[in-house]
């Protein structure tokens, strides 16, 4: 077989062209080697084309944050390496430890976190040949930093109007009772003053008659 082709067994069969992203450097090759940066998965034979690891995920963002959970989402890589077995490794790092998860989806919720703690979150795109090129994982990684809420601020937005409504429902009658009490006291004071003045005038009138 000439250069650029191969034949795995001796005989009269035709030579095969090298699969995509592979080559045979000399005539009479029994297989084709992958080009630099391309690989075959361990279970794939010499007839399978060579493929590459994917590029990095796109637009990693946090979609929701509570005191113990962080939800994240991202877009698929622009280049999947020519494979369909794409998956993601999520690494979450705090000041004390690092935990890894894997998923085939483009979103994930990290649970059981510590309130008011800053986490560095990395998402790496991988496929069936990524293990053969681990040295370049940093080129396929996106990172964000997220701080969980503290326990005092983690109130759902629906609770604030309810709390305000409850406060108004309880406070309005109390204010009304206080106003009514103040009015009664004022009336009572006025009545006492009027009675005292009237009594004083009657005393003065009696004295004038006596004189």
From TrEMBL:
One term under GO cellular component: plasma membrane
Segments crossing the lipid bilayer: 163-194
Keyword Transmembrane: yes
Main localization (coarse): membrane
Membrane topology: Single-pass membrane protein
Domain of life where this protein originates: Eukaryota
PROSITE patterns: FN3 (PS50853)
InterPro entries the record matches: Ephrin_rcpt_TKs, FN3_dom, FN3_sf, Ig-like_fold, Tyr-kin_ephrin_A/B_rcpt-like
Entry annotated with the keyword Ion transport: no
Domain Fibronectin type-III: 56-151
UniProt entry keywords in alphabetical sequence: ATP-binding, Membrane, Nucleotide-binding, Receptor, Repeat, Transmembrane, Transmembrane helix
GO MF annotation terms: ATP binding; transmembrane-ephrin receptor activity
Localization: Membrane
Record PANTHER family: EPH RECEPTOR A5, RECEPTOR PROTEIN-TYROSINE KINASE
Protein name: Fibronectin type-III domain-containing protein
